[in-house]
Amino acid sequence: MGRYTGGVRRSRHRRLATVATVVALVLAAPAGVATAKWFAQGSVSGGARADSLGAGNAPTAAVYGQRVTLTWTASTLVANAGHPATAYVVTRYGEGDTVGTGGTVVTCLAPLAITVCTDDAVTPGTWRYTVTPTLHDWHGEESPASNEVVVTLAAITVPPGQTLNATGRILAGVTLSQFRGNESVELWVVDGGGAHVGAAPASTVTVDADGNAAAMPVTVPVDIADGTYALQAVGAASGPVTPSATFVLDTTAPTTSAGSLAAWVRPGAVVHLAATDPAPGAVASISYRLGGAAAVVVPAAQADVTVTVTAALEFFATDAAGNAETEQTANVQVDSVAPVPGVVGVPTAIRNAATIGSSPTDAGSGVATVAYLYCPAAVCTPTIPIGDPVGAPFTVRWSDMAEGEYRVAALVTDAVGNTATSASVLVNVSVGADTGGPLGFLSPLSRPGVIPAVIGRTVNLSATATDDSGMADVRFEYRAGTGPWTPIATVDVMDEPDVFATVWDASALTPGIYTVRAIARDQAGNESTFAARRAVLYGPSDLQLVNGGGAGGVGKLELGDSVRITFDTLPRRTDMCPGGWNSGFVPIAGVRVTLVDGGSGPDQMTFTVPGCVGGGNLGTITLGSGDYVGAAGATFGTTEPAGTSRLAFEPATNSVVFTLGSLSEGSVTAVTAPTVAVYTPSVLALSANLSAPAGTASTTAGAVVF
């Protein structure tokens, strides 16, 4: 039935008018209220008839994200079906609403067809829709409700149980749904409290027109540390949504330890490998390879490897995320050879409380301990321990023994437990009082009576000492002149019980003559002082080239110029002529000085002592210039006596001075820019009496260069 908006009912149909044109009465009607209008039947008859707009057809609803799309069949006039409705009013009803009462009129998205409507940004819930047709001022009845549609919140979905490793950091199968159509969505990594992690989103995605994004990979940024996280989507219009299922980021490889693997092991030893993973992922496996054999993979965090021969053990662990540690290598050394016990170091006749020693060796793991054994007879097998097993230097004191014959042996054990027993030795033990000191001597290390040394170096000292009650130690001392004795070192019984050695660091002492002595002490406390030896400590030398004031001036070698070489100890003429003198020749203070052209390098000055076999042992001076002499060279002091170059000794300064005589051969030139010269002694000059290290440069302070 048609209705009046004012509440007065009108008939649905009107009688046809006989006029050619009818002006329709325009009545406003609300949605859902049908109205009747006059309709012109035709201009020929001039008639008119009543008509009405048919009811709306129920729409069909479909959900796309937070959009609902409605389609329906067009409504037309009842009497004149060729005239469809020109517009429709779309109404949305919530769950429990009664159609025709309340509802929300929908503003459809443009553009749209006359029978299609898209409802955007629909609040999540269950909805139904109706359509009410209109044609100009006609309103048809409201349609029946559409099918129910359920609109849900926008969501992000991540397949659960994923663990990412350092290789990819890629989260797979991420999907988006129910967002606004074509919306820009940021994907953020969030921690357990929902806080964003990282400086930027992991990705930014534009969803399709329906508000969805198909499954896609997402790479977790590298600035995010290992841990358990989720992914949250933040739409530009929809805002943040509930985070996804969690995933694990594990980029840290596990680490494997070979435990307390000893440097050496016995055959059949087991190496225990244990892996730990600091990140959330658990250790998945340990892989190892022994000595180039096939690799073995143990699907656990621990693995035991049995070794029988020396080999390289390569191993690494892999965690559940697929992170593999860098391969490690442990060189497992297997010692299956017994040590060599050596000879028990004990005199055949000793006193009670003597020290027993030995010198065992082991080419593998090394000697660990020596246990000394004895038996109280001349013929027996030693089994009774002498004290506890001892380490280096493998000595033990044998006390509280009765007088008589004994056999002594050494049971040697190496670091991995291999053992060997030495041959036994026969020992006669005396329990009488020991009042005599050790016998021995301090070994000279050069010619008799002299121990040579050089300042800035160390000196090897040794002494030999024996005693029938056993040696205890040897004490080395030194002193300058008649001053107090200063300790060098005290050396206990060593591998060879009768030999004692030490190193004397004399680098801090000044050059001079020192006395070194050794004091030996036996097990009974008796001491003996061995003959002292003279030690000569040599220091650096000095070179000066002095102008004699001749007419040639500075820069030209001539009569009266001199060379001064200062030694740590004053040399002797015999030091300078180690080959001896020619028969019948009486050594004099003359010397021949020769200048040798250095070619493209500096000139050189050499010295020859007349009458000395081999010409002497004075070394060479390399001058600082190549312009002192020509290619033929020159010689000073070939005539006797007036023109001879002279050699003088100055005990007060430990110096040797060569003064140039007359130029007898060749010629010299003047050097405009003299430079520093360098003195290089000959090999024999480094004797026990004097030392001038090679390359000693001339001084500049207080010296006048040629």
Query: Biggest sheet, open or closed, and with what strands and sense?
Result: 11 strands, antiparallel
Q: State the distance separating the first and last CA atoms.
A: 143 Å
Oligomer, anyone?
Answer: single chain
Radius of gyration, CA atoms, in whole angstroms: 58 Å
Would you identify the regions where 5 or more consecutive residues have pLDDT less than 50? 1-46, 444-456, 683-697, 699-705
Number of helices: 1
Shape: elongated
Q: Pairing-aware structural class of the strands and helices? A: mainly beta
Topology:
Blueprint: E1 36-40, E2 48-52, E3 60-64, E4 67-71, E5 87-94, E6 104-105, E7 116-119, E8 125-135, E9 138-139, E10 149-151, E11 155-157, E12 163-164, E13 170-177, E14 184-190, E15 196-197, E16 203-206, E17 213-219, E18 227-235, E19 239-240, E20 247-249, E21 255-257, E22 264-265, E23 269-276, E24 283-290, E25 296-298, E26 302-307, E27 311-319, E28 328-334, E29 344-345, E30 349-351, E31 354-358, E32 367-375, E33 384-385, E34 395-398, E35 404-414, E36 419-421, E37 425-430, E38 439-442, E39 450-454, E40 458-466, E41 471-480, E42 486-492, E43 499-505, E44 512-522, E45 527-529, E46 533-538, E47 542-546, E48 562-566, H1 573-576, E49 590-596, E50 604-608, E51 620-622, E52 629-636, E53 645-650, E54 655-659, E55 663-668, E56 678-680, E57 696-697
Parallel strand pairs: 12-20, 22-28, 30-37, 39-46
Antiparallel strand pairs: 1-2, 3-4, 4-7, 5-6, 5-8, 8-9, 8-10, 11-13, 13-17, 14-15, 14-16, 14-18, 18-19, 18-20, 21-23, 23-26, 24-25, 24-27, 27-28, 29-31, 31-34, 32-33, 32-35, 35-36, 35-37, 38-40, 40-43, 41-42, 41-44, 44-45, 44-46, 47-48, 48-54, 49-50, 49-52, 49-53, 50-51, 51-56, 52-55, 53-54, ...
